[in-house]
Design goal:
The structure is a single chain. The protein has 2 domains: 4-129 and 307-336, Medium-chain alcohol dehydrogenases, catalytic domain (Quinone Oxidoreductase, Chain A, domain 1, Alpha-Beta Complex), CATH 3.90.180.10; 133-282, Rossmann fold. 24% of the residues lie in helices and 26% in strands. The protein has 9 helices and 15 strands. The strands form 3 sheets. Strands 3, 4, 5, 6, 7, 14 and 15 form a 7-stranded mixed sheet that branches. Strands 10-9-8-11-12-13 form a 6-stranded parallel sheet, with helices on both faces. A two-stranded antiparallel sheet has the order 1-2. It binds NADP nicotinamide-adenine-dinucleotide phosphate (NAP). The site of NADP nicotinamide-adenine-dinucleotide phosphate has 29 residues, from helix 2 and helix 3.
Amino acid sequence: MSQLNRQWLLRERPVGMVGPEHFEYAESAIPEPDLAAGQVLIKTLMLGFDPTMRGWLVDEPSYLPPVAIGKPMRASGVGQVVQSSNSQLPTGALVQGMLNWQEYSIGDLARRAAPVLLPQGVPPNLALSIFGNTSITAYFGLLDVGRPKRGETVLVSGAAGATGSVVAQIAKLKGCRVIGIAGGQEKCQWLLQSCKVDAVIDYKDENLEQRIRELCPKGVDLFFDNVGGHTLEAGIENMADFSRIVLCGSIAGYNDEKPQPGPHNLMRLVTRRIRMQGFVVIDYLARASEALEAIGGWVSAGEIVWREDIQEGFENIPATLQRLFDGRNVGKQLLKLADPE
Ligand SMILES: NC(=O)c1ccc[n+]([C@@H]2O[C@H](COP(=O)([O-])OP(=O)(O)OC[C@H]3O[C@@H](n4cnc5c(N)ncnc54)[C@H](OP(=O)(O)O)[C@@H]3O)[C@@H](O)[C@H]2O)c1
């Protein structure tokens, strides 16, 4: 075991695009080896990166408190128990939880959001990608909030990403016609060929609003929006009467220096009787096993595909977060620190 705990602390709250300059490298002593009853010492093996982490840097009320200046950046991850005072999490066990941007952390079963055991045989990367929170988000956001019906036209933005690609494929499995919006030819081809969506729109190269209209002449029945901004406006403009919009995220605005004006066409919600609803996956975590069982079945049957973008190196952690906001990530953004022992 190395003697130092390497960490990335929040140096300052970013205004505009988040970058490595907003974090500060630090080394501290590994947390106290004399563990209290119920505690475990966890070595971080792999970190997951989520666009919502940008929101945790802002000092505003949200579904989680902001990360404090000078504290390790909050992040989900998979780690291995290296010391244990807890019979449920023995030494050597692989666990998942908020491990933060640091090599070692203390897990405490008495605390809320305590680390949980990885299901038997699930490696760290899969626990954070296809069996991770983005898939649970996709499952409940689409099926519980969006409620697609067979034969409906479903539009998905951010469709080549971790959440969007699972949404698009579940909608196909439920018998819908699926249009995916993504940035660049490579991502669009993957959606068509591997995710088997019916049509794609490369928003970086095509007129989004016009292409939605051409591809959905009778209107969109269900729009699963990960992007917000102009993408949301273009979707609203093309919704069918009595359609639904699921607001999952708004990544186009996460790094804006000041809030953009809202969609100019919200009145369409009235005239077309559209229901628009946001949701946060945290509200569904108690039902996660429902989603994971269904997703596990589709994975075993080869009915769902996914991609992982695995960066490496402790020094690259802050720069890896930025990949989500310029679309460099190809699939679920991860960073590997170590292999299990
Ligand atoms: N509500 C919830 O509980 C919940 C939970 C998880 C995630 N989310 C939301 O779901 C969305 C996707 O998250 P994810 O973790 O699955 O990430 P992801 O889609 O794997 O990665 C982010 C993608 O967003 C796209 N993007 C970035 N900036 C953009 C911009 N300015 N305009 C359009 N597209 C942009 C990029 O794809 P392109 O290359 O195609 O542009 C990028 O690859 C985010 O909005 C996130 O906040 C919500």
